[in-house]
Design a protein that fits this description.
five-stranded parallel beta sheet; Rossmann fold; 13% strand; alpha/beta; seven-stranded parallel beta sheet; 321 residues; binds glyoxylic acid; 2 domains
């Protein structure tokens, strides 16, 4: 049994595969595989361990219907046509939970970096423009007691809310498809309509999955309803915000700042004006990039491969086949 792995992954996952007697091929080049290359590689393997946003669409799945399992080293599976996989009886696995803390840390980091213009100041020093102490310039805002609004309050959003409560005593409001009673009891979260989430949040952080319902949800009309002093944080998926509209909202001071770990499109162009704005902090999709999260993700992805190749139900499965 052989697995194709689309990137170099942490040793925790590889060791599990070796111990299970599974061979693997890693794509070790620092470039994306084209859809044709991915299909060609999978033809000679029994399973796929996919890292990054490879399109696991119906065309791919039909061309590779021999695959016994497709295991994503990611929590989000918006890049997969799950109904097509289910119809072809291909189990899809993901890695929920282990990256919640790391991703929440990233959102927290972006909130504070945005509020204090930290990334911009770092750049200014690098240009030799330290300047002198001016009491009225480079002012940020304090997060203490501000309202945190979360769209998609699940594991990651709850981890963020706990940090925000501990650090800054921030009350929590949220909007979800379904009420999160655990969060209401544990964290005093208050459920609000999407409109009220826009209107009442001082920091609005996205932790929903990318679906037709959330795609493009943050456009000019949405930003227009947010507070002028608010900060928009996206560590979920770039496709949930319209980046031109976000830039316009920042330029017109419709909102105060933005922190992005995901951009639309990815990668962000190096000349994007957002990169030069004081109230903006951007990271290159590193939400889960910690030793702890990535080794946990590699382990779970390998466990899904091992189960799938044995024809067993995946321990962390997305679909029922
Ligand atoms: C990363 O974006 C993930 O979905 O795990
Ligand atoms: C600032 O550095 C101060 O001393 O107030």
């Amino acid at each position: 049994m052989k697995v194709f792995i689309t990137r170099i992954i942490p040793e925790t996952g590889l060791e599990l595969l070796r111990n299970a007697g599974i061979q693997y091929t890693e794509h070790r080049e620092k470039r994306h595989l084209s859809p044709e290359e991915l299909i060609a590689a999978c033809k000679t393997h029994d399973a796929l361990l996919s890292v990054g946003g490879n399109k696991i669409n119906a065309a791919f799945l039909q061309a590779c219907s021999h695959l016994k399992v497709v295991s994503l080293m990611a929590v989000g599976y918006d890049n997969v046509d799950v109904p097509a996989a289910t119809a072809l009886k291909i189990p899809i696995g993901n890695t929920p939970g282990v990256l919640s803390n790391a991703t929440a840390d990233t959102a927290f980091l972006l909130m504070l970096a945005t509020a204090r213009k930290a990334f911009y100041m770092h750049k200014v020093i690098g240009r030799g423009e330290w300047g002198f102490f001016e009491p009225t310039t480079n002012l940020g805002i304090e997060l203490n007691g501000r309202t945190l609004g979360v769209l998609g309050l699940g594991k990651i959003g709850m981890a963020l809310a706990k940090k925000c409560r501990g650090a800054f005593d921030m009350p929590l409001i949220y909007h979800n498809r379904h009420r999160n009673e655990e969060a209401e009891q544990l964290l005093g979260a208050r459920y609000v309509s999407f409109e009220d989430l826009l209107k009442e949040s001082d920091v609005l952080s996205l932790h929903a999955a990318l679906t037709p319902e959330t795609a493009g949800k943050f456009d000019a009309a949405a930003f227009a309803q947010m507070k002028p002093g608010s900060i928009f944080i996206n560590t979920a998926r770039g496709a949930m915000h319209n980046e031109q509209d976000l830039l316009a909202a920042l330029e017109s001071k419709t909102i105060w700042g933005a922190g992005l770990d995901v951009t639309n499109p990815e990668p962000m162009d190096q000349n994007n004006p957002l990169l030069n704005m004081p109230n903006v902090a951007v990271l290159p999709h590193i939400g889960s990039a910690t030793v702890e999260a990535r080794s946990g993700m590699a382990r779970m992805a390998a466990e899904n491969i091992i189960a799938g190749l044995k024809g067993e139900a995946l321990p962390y499965g997305v679909n029922k086949v």
